[in-house]
């Protein structure tokens, strides 16, 4: 009986850090030799120290297992089990998908701005083999701290840009972005700086005070314009 498999393809999803056993069972007349490939290249267990291979003879053929002690993204690969005897040869493919939290977004860039808004964009990161559910845009005045003075804006996982409103005129802000999937949150990206535009008053000044500072000099103070509102 030629060496053969009863299944041609399997897919297995695992979480990063989990122990994984990639298994194939070949049928046919013995002796049956089994070799493994990873993404089309012969799996060399001497070079790939993280993999160990065990074989067990059965009444119907042979079972071979590749053991991975702690899976990481390098193990997201197509493993091919090749069985051969004197009467024939067959292959079985097992796709391993390692899932984890996403990487941090990158290429965070500030674009057009007004006196009250700034738009930013970012490049989606490696998703961790799990859909990105949302992004968090965190921002603060450049003089403030991330811990005490920052605010958050949430964008959907399909977005790669956002407009932040409610800012103060002529103020420099820092912006950074974080991604989240069902396995956790990424680190924050590096921050980008941007400054809002000046805001031109649209009405007459209020609370005007004039104080004499000399026999020929007045000091005029305007505390607030009628349409200029400082926001929290």
Automatic annotation (TrEMBL):
Keywords, comma-separated and alphabetical: Repeat
Fibronectin type-III domain: residues covered: 104-199
One term under GO cellular component: synapse
Keyword Secreted carried by entry: no
CDD domains assigned to the protein according to its UniProt record, in alphabetical order: FN3
Coiled-coil parts of chain: none
A Pfam family matched in the record: I-set
Domain Ig-like: 2-95
Lineage, top ranks: Eukaryota, Metazoa, Ecdysozoa, Arthropoda, Chelicerata
GO terms under biological process: anatomical structure morphogenesis; cell differentiation; homophilic cell adhesion via plasma membrane adhesion molecules; synapse assembly
Protein name, as recorded: Down syndrome cell adhesion molecule-like protein 1-like protein
InterPro entries tied to this protein: FN3_dom, FN3_sf, Ig-like_dom, Ig-like_dom_sf, Ig-like_fold, Ig_I-set, Ig_sub, Ig_sub2
Originating organism: Parasteatoda tepidariorum
Residue spans crossing the bilayer: none
């Amino acid at each position: 009986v030629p060496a053969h498999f009863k299944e041609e393809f399997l897919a297995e999803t695992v979480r990063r850090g989990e122990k994984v056993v990639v298994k194939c069972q070949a049928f046919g007349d013995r002796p049956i030799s089994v070799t493994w490939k990873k993404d089309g290249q012969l799996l060399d267990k001497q070079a790939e120290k993280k993999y160990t291979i065990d074989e067990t003879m059965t009444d119907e053929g042979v079972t071979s297992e590749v053991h991975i002690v702690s899976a990481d993204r390098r193990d997201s690969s197509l493993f091919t089990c090749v069985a051969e005897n004197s009467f024939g040869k067959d292959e079985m493919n097992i796709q391993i998908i390692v899932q984890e939290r996403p990487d941090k977004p990158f290429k965070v860039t500030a674009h057009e701005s007004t006196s009250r808004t700034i738009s930013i964009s970012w490049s989606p990161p490696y998703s961790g083999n799990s859909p990105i559910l949302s992004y968090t845009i965190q921002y603060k005045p450049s003089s403030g701290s991330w811990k005490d003075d920052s605010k958050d804006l949430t964008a959907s996982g399909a977005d790669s840009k956002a407009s932040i409103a409610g800012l103060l005129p002529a103020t420099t802000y820092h912006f950074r972005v974080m991604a989240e999937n069902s396995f956790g949150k990424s680190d924050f990206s590096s921050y980008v700086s941007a400054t809002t535009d000046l805001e031109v008053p649209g009405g007459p000044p209020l609370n005007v005070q004039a104080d004499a500072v000399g026999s020929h000099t007045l000091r005029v103070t305007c505390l607030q314009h009628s349409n200029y509102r400082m926001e929290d």
